[in-house]
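Whiteboard transcription, Tuesday session. T.W. wrote the structure tokens on the left side:
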């Protein structure tokens, strides 16, 4: 995936917002970027995707062990949540634009006016 793809830029923006730092790397990080994931299959099927996740602490050549710190999982969760909000809000704004073909404006309620249905 190109490093300037919209989803890559969205994750990088969210990373900066959550951590206050630039991502250490954008693009392929070898040797682990090509193992145990389905991104190549999804990409070939026309589904844009990327790898983003917690840093892994790997053992040495004599150890077949790896672990992830809970703090890394928390950071990734915050970044992915911020990315979802970013991407979904952009899609919602696009859906609320005037329809050029029919001249109709879609009504998009503001967040303040949205009412949740009563609990059952």
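and on the right, the sequence the group agreed on:
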């Amino acid at each position: 995936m190109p490093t300037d793809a919209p989803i890559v830029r969205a994750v990088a923006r969210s990373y900066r917002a959550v951590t206050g730092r630039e991502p250490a790397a954008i693009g392929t990080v070898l040797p682990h970027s090509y193992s145990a994931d389905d991104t190549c299959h999804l990409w070939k099927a026309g589904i844009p995707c990327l790898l983003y996740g917690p840093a892994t602490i790997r053992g040495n050549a004599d150890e077949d062990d790896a672990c992830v710190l809970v703090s890394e999982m928390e950071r990734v969760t915050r970044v992915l949540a911020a990315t979802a909000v970013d991407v979904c809000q952009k899609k919602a704004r696009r859906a609320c634009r005037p329809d050029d073909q029919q001249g109709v404006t879609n009504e998009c309620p503001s967040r303040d006016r949205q009412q949740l249905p009563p609990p059952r």
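Someone added at the bottom: The beta strands are 57-58, 66-67, 98-99, 104-105.
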